[in-house]
Amino acid sequence: MARKTYFDVTRLPGFSTIAVIVFVMLYAPILMLVIYSFNAGSSVAIWDGFSWRWYVTAWQNEQVKEVTLRSLMLAASAATISTALATMAALATTRKRAFRGQTAIYVAINQPLMVPEIVTAVALLILFAAVKVATGYQGMGYLILAHTAFCIPFAYLPIRARLEGMDMALEAAAADLYASPWQGFRHVTLPLLMPGIAAGMMLAFVTSLDDVVISLFVKSAGQDTLPTYLLAQLRRQVSPEINAISSVLLLLTLVLLTTFFLLTRKKD
Amino acid sequence: MQSQPQQQGKGASVSEDPAVEVRHAIKQFGQGDSAVRALDDVSVSIRRGEFFTLLGPSGCGKTTLLRLIAGFETPTSGQILLDGQDITNLPPNKRPVNTVFQSYALFPHLTVAENIGFGLKMLGQSRADIAARTAEMLALVQLEAMSTRKTAQLSGGQQQRVALARALAPRPKVLLLDEPLSALDLKLRKEMQSELKRLQTETGITFIFVTHDQEEALTMSDRIGVMSRGQINQIGAPREIYAHPTNRFVADFIGETNFLIARMQGGVATLPGDVALPLPGSRADGQVTLAVRPEHVRIVSRDTAGALPATVSHSVYFGTDSHVHLRLADGTEVVSRQQTDAEGAASPEAGTGVGVSFPAGAVQVLED
User: Fold this and answer.
1) Do B70 and A176 touch (CB under 8 A)?
2) In terms of CA atoms, which chain B residue is nearest residue A195?
3) Which of B70, B105, B170 sits opposite A167 (nearest CB)?
4) Span A225-253, mean pLDDT?
5) All structural domains of chain A with their residue ranges
6) pLDDT for A156
7) What local confidence, expressed as pLDDT, does residue B111 receive?
8) If residue B289 lies in a helix (H) or strand (E), which one and from where to where?
């Protein structure tokens, strides 16, 4: 027998019971949601047979189309901008010799992970209200800006992790072999960083896609995103159409997160 | 390369005119009280075509000096010249100097051939030229069969060869090697040592090699610069450094050495036990440290004229030789290396009273 392993979960009493409870609590509601999205009847609690009916309804709902497109556009913009910024931040915080105030910068970048979202939302509401009055601009810019800000840490962390695992001598070698700083970035750093950047971008995209709190506070009239639309719908009437939309959103998220996992997992 | 006549033995056409010149280089890291001087006024001139080794313990500044020549660091003050031109403030990509890194730093997303061709590609050479030079380099390091592999699929020794080929491909004026053999096992290291020497002779490129391994330095170099605490202590050919170390650090770091405290006056050293040893040629006065290699210490009978009285404390058997540890009158420990003779005669017993002598020519007066 090999040496005793402490905290071997398979040996802790009651572990399997706890595990089962946790998994049921985590996944049963989601399972129910998906099952009832295929309900032929119009109740989310009484099963009435299998049907694609609510998917068709959702597909034909112009409003759903509009908010979905808005959400995707918002998530794509926020993910792109935040990933670009996060890449620069990650390069600056890992590719240089440690400097004074580095920890402070690290904290500042990850601030959205620590400050309660509602606080940020209220603060943004007040600030943007003033800006809206002063400039008269009512467009999507506010939402994009707000989403970009809270997406940065989600993009930053996988990129930074990737950079930390990368030998600094690689860039030195590129420079030594006559690559200008830009060529070194283009031919060495960027290709090696690509999985991290893609992963960060996907995390940022998913985070933006399902944000409710900040969107709710920042959006102007007629700027509903998919999550805020669903919330509004739920207040009025509950139909399996919501289940259908949520299930599609779930599927999209799963695809993105699986890709993220495949991109970041260590080879062999 | 083919046209160049192969020169055996030491150095391919070493010329007196320097390839690299470092003038009064000072490199300081950090500021104020926490400042560390990695290099403290280093001046060295490296000749064209020579195999020059920077030897010293870790933290002595040898790697910093190499990074200064490569351009990864700029000196706090001082000058670096390449072929007589001031390159002190040129970035690494503008210096016709290439480096073999300790970690090899091969690009993991590129194949072996792409790694070797990287420098040429950055220099804007044509595809045909890059392909031809890459093939030539692959042949030079005997890796033709590996050209399309990714570098992670290679063994340590093969990666080392790729790193060498990559650095040599752009025909640098100087090749810098930062402890490139330290990650290899002993057998492979020996192989690579002769391989490196062969490449240097064949290409005729100036090599600056950094190591902490004195044996590596002694066997490969044309000249060695011994460093400690950010300064170069002594520069010379391996034989010169070994036979005539100028200070205690060099004598101690390279090979094994016995140190004796003596009093010098008028070219005569007074050793422990009041034995006088004439050392003509030394003008030192007062208390000095003498260095004598163990292989030069002879054990003689106690009453031999001019011998230092000593007692055998113990001996260690190594096979081809044994080390006899002796204690002098003043308590100084001296080691004598005794070649094992055909009869396999035993070393003197512990506690035996003997005499110790050494030829005056084997004694090195150190400037302390």
Assistant:
1) yes
2) B109
3) B105
4) 88
5) 61-264
6) 93
7) 92
8) strand B286-292
CA A123 to chain B, closest CA, distance in angstroms equals: 41
Contact at 8 Å (CB) between B166 and B131? no
What tens digit of pLDDT does each residue of A131-151 get?
988 988 888 999 999 999 999
Q: Any idea which fold A61-264 has? A: MetI-like fold (1.10.3720)
Closest residue in A to B176 (Cα–Cα)? A176
AA identity, residue A75: A
Taking the model in full, what pTM does it have? 0.78
Q: In this structure, what token pair is assigned to residue A32? A: 């129910």
Q: Is the minimum CB–CB distance between A258 and chain B shorter than 8 Å?
A: no
Give chain B positions within 8 Å (CB) of A177.
Answer: 93, 98, 118-119, 122, 166-167, 170
DSSP per-residue letters across A47-113: ---B-SHHHHHHHH-HHHHHHHHHHHHHHHHHHHHHHHHHHHHHHHHHSS---TTHHHHHHHHTHHH
Asked whether the predicted pLDDT for residue B24 surpasses 60, the reply is yes
How close A159 comes to chain B (CA, Å)?
17
- Residue A165 in contact with residue A158, Cβ under 8 Å? no
Contact B76, A147 (CB under 8 A): no
Order of strands across the sheet that contains B97-100 = B97-100, B174-178, B206-211, B51-55, B223-228, B231-236
